[in-house]
């Protein structure tokens, strides 16, 4: 599954040109290129794209701040493709609201696969009434298609939080508290980001059903589907 429209925000003209050509000709995605984050934000369609590919080192608003702005206005998929390295970079982009982080140099085929994986997760479910179920006795998540996924204790605790929230965002602080973790002000919550990532991957490996678990910039995470406790 690929999005219909995509905004590519990157000031590397040669890279952007060839990636745009690949995505349009090989993947059938309508790509709009922006070499400056301010140029995207000035566009009347800035928040109407189905997907965003974002570099971090940009003229104008930097990549992390741009992700935060996008997350306040859209639930579209956001993938970071950047040459910046380091665990602190991963924490920044995931906390800001990005769905995935790829490190340059990266093959165009890998970018396409990342876009498809995130699009499956963020696209709206085919039925708003599709109910996910958390079986606390067996420690399993029951997907609407009937698949049963064995969960870790941390997975179960997180999903209980989302079930009790009834589709509303759950703060990072609430999730960390549920997991029995305390993070002092200014410290990293990489552990939570990694736990959420592992939960998503566990579900994606078990079923093709769209995973309705999304990040919310400056807030936490939200499970955008009915989740019933058993």
Outline of this structure?
With 230 residues, this protein is of the alpha/beta class. The protein is built from 8 helices and 12 strands. The longest helix is centred in the last third of the chain and has 17 residues, at 190-206.
List the helices and strands and how they pair.
Blueprint: E1 5-9, H1 13-27, E2 30-34, H2 37-42, E3 51-54, H3 63-73, E4 77-82, H4 87-96, E5 100-103, H5 108-122, E6 132-135, E7 140-142, E8 148-150, H6 153-165, E9 170-171, H7 172-178, H8 190-206, E10 213-216, E11 220-223, E12 227-229
Parallel strand pairs: 1-2, 1-3, 3-4, 4-5, 6-12
Antiparallel strand pairs: 6-7, 7-8, 9-11, 10-11
Overview of the structural elements:
By secondary structure, this protein is α/β, with parallel strands linked by helices. The protein has 8 helices and 12 strands. Strand 4, helix 4 and strand 5 form a beta-alpha-beta unit. It is globular and about 55 Å long. The two termini are 32 Å apart. The model has no long low-confidence stretch (mean pLDDT 86). This is DNA-binding response OmpR family regulator.
